[in-house]
Amino acid sequence: MRATSIIFRRELGAYLRSPIGWVVAAALLLLDGLLFQAFAMERAALSADVLRAFFMWTSITTGIASIVLSVRLVAEERQTGSMVLLNTSPVHDVEIVVGKFLAAFVFLCGMVLLTIYMPLLIKVHGKITYTQIAVGYLGLFLMGATGISVGLFAGCLTRNQLAAYFLGGFFLGIMDALYHLGKVLDPPLRETFSSLDYWWEHFQLGFMSGVLNLKDVVYYGAVTYFFLLLSVKTLEAKRWQ
Amino acid sequence: MIRVENLSKYYGGTRALGPVSFEIEDGETVGFLGLNGAGKTTALRVLACDLRPSAGSVTIDGVDAVADPHEVRKRIGFQPENPPLYGDMTVTDYLRFAGELRGMRKPELKKRLPEVIDMVDLGDVAHQVISTLSHGYKQRVGVAQAVVHNPKLLILDEPTRGLDPVQIVEMRKLVSNLKKVHTVLISSHILTEISQTCDRLLILGKGAILGAGTEAELSGAKSEIRQVTVAVRTDNTKAVRDALAKIEGVTEIGGPFEQGGGHVFTVSCTTDVRADVSRAVVGGEWDLIKLDYSRSELENTFIRLVGGRDASN
């Protein structure tokens, strides 16, 4: 636990010290603002629909940011050789993975929270509740956590950061396509594939509409755990190779 | 004490190391010597618990490095070939981070950090960001992270790699100081570095140990190479060669080849035959220009061991 905290502080500091953290934060906020202005506010609509549109566009930028922030966590360390310090210290692989994951997650949540002024503007001028906003943000955080775990795993697979970015995006893209794949299949595969979908099934139909379903929370929690476990096992396996 | 028994490491189907067995006593400074690809780095990474062995056992202070690597890592400081640095951190922050990872508490670190910074002479750059440091300083920071928690065993993989001559001398001094308080393992393919800093040598070639012992033990082995180089001024080189061949203990005569206005012969022998050679030259009334003698030193030993192994493969 202590090692997790030490690694968490270092990684969070690295986001704040290096350009990548600031560039990603600036790009995310700029894009969210532009998309909100261009699409969510493009015509007269119910305030609940405007909020839905805001969360839809923000979930896309959050998914992309989660991959960009997380892939470097292990891939960069393996590329520069600094991973050896962690590997030869009395630190378990699970502590390394969790420490890095939490740092990226906290940084991502901080970035996403900076978009709060947009839902508050809708609240001031329309009829939405704070609960709708809170549920939407909970969905963004959970989705971001899953994206980070996927990116972290991709970074564990290869030390080439470009390849890791591609892999992370590919995994997330596949998980996002499951809903559409399910639609062309017959039951029970239809339900199986749809329920494994990353965005449509669990975010758009739930959190984005201000509906908090336990199954959606469990889905994101389980998938995040799964990819973090894969990351730990991959790091362990690298020592045997 | 480090005990390695039948240690092997395979990368896929390729054997990188072993099986090798050796022991290292507390307080020793041992050099891993070998050509590139000999298995030095693999051996050190296994000892540092960075890699798990494919077979065999490693125990450090009685603790099994495979069964309980976590416990072994507490006793080890490792500097790989490329120092494991975070370019975005300052030297002090980085060393604090490395110390905390090794279980050091804040009061302990507060006392230890200035000592380490002073020991490796990083005072001038202590608050500088690592990415802005020169290669020599980065190597020092690498050594500093390895010793910050005062480990019993210090493993340095090619610590002078990429350093200029002045930095090499400084690094050698640093290692000499570290020897006083740590058991040190150093790998290198630079013979002089190893011979000047280590008590004992392990010579590796193609994943196997080709020789082990002190420099004197290795050089004094049965097949020791001694060589007398003699240069004479004469037209009758055949007569010189015949005279040299008659000397007791001479095993082989190389040359002659022309150099500096004379003919140079290299006389391989099992004993010191300088006196006999000089008498033969005087007896033949040839002009003596040069007489050199060399014993089988580390370089010869190294070439003999590694060359022999290569030839047998």
What is the overall number of helices of chain B? Answer: 11
CATH architecture of the largest domain in chain B, by name, is 3-Layer(aba) Sandwich
Q: Name the beta content range of chain A.
A: under 5%
| Global outline of chain A | globular
Low-confidence stretches of chain A are none
Summarize the entry for a quick read:
The complex is a heterodimer of chains A (241) and B (313). By secondary structure, chain A is mainly alpha-helical.
Write a structural description:
The complex is a heterodimer of chains A (241) and B (313). With 241 residues, chain A is mostly helical. Chain A has one domain (2-240). Chain A is 82% helix and 0% strand. In chain A, helix 3 packs antiparallel against helix 5. Chain A is globular, with a radius of gyration of 19 Å. The model of chain A has no long low-confidence stretch (mean pLDDT 91). Chain B has 313 residues and is of the alpha/beta class. Chain B has two domains: 2-219, 3-Layer(aba) Sandwich (Rossmann fold); 226-294, Alpha-Beta Plaits, CATH 3.30.70.100. Chain B is 36% helix and 31% strand. Chain B has eleven helices and 14 strands. Chain B has helices at 40-47, 69-73, 91-101, 106-119, 135-147, 165-179, 191-197, 215-219, 237-245, 274-283, 298-312, and strands at 2-11, 14-24, 29-34, 55-60, 63-64, 76-79, 153-157, 183-188, 200-205, 208-213, 226-233, 250-259, 262-269, 287-294. In chain B, the strands form three sheets. In chain B, strands 6-7-8-3-9-10 form a six-stranded mixed sheet, with helices on both faces. Chain B has a four-stranded antiparallel sheet with strand order 2-1-4-5. In chain B, a hairpin with a 2-residue loop joins strand 12 (250-259) and strand 13. In chain B, helix 3 packs across helix 4. Chain B is elongated.
Record the SSE blueprint.
The complex is a heterodimer of chains A (241) and B (313).
Chain A lengths: L1 H16 L1 H22 L6 H34 L2 H5 L5 H21 L3 H9 L4 H28 L3 H23 L5 H7 L4 H5 L9 H27 L1
Chain B lengths: L1 E10 L2 E11 L4 E6 L5 H8 L7 E6 L2 E2 L4 H5 L2 E4 L11 H11 L4 H14 L15 H13 L5 E5 L7 H15 L3 E6 L2 H7 L2 E6 L2 E6 L1 H5 L6 E8 L3 H9 L4 E10 L2 E8 L4 H10 L3 E8 L3 H15 L1
Parallel strand pairs in B: 3-8, 3-9, 6-7, 7-8
Antiparallel strand pairs in B: 1-2, 1-4, 4-5, 9-10, 11-13, 11-14, 12-13
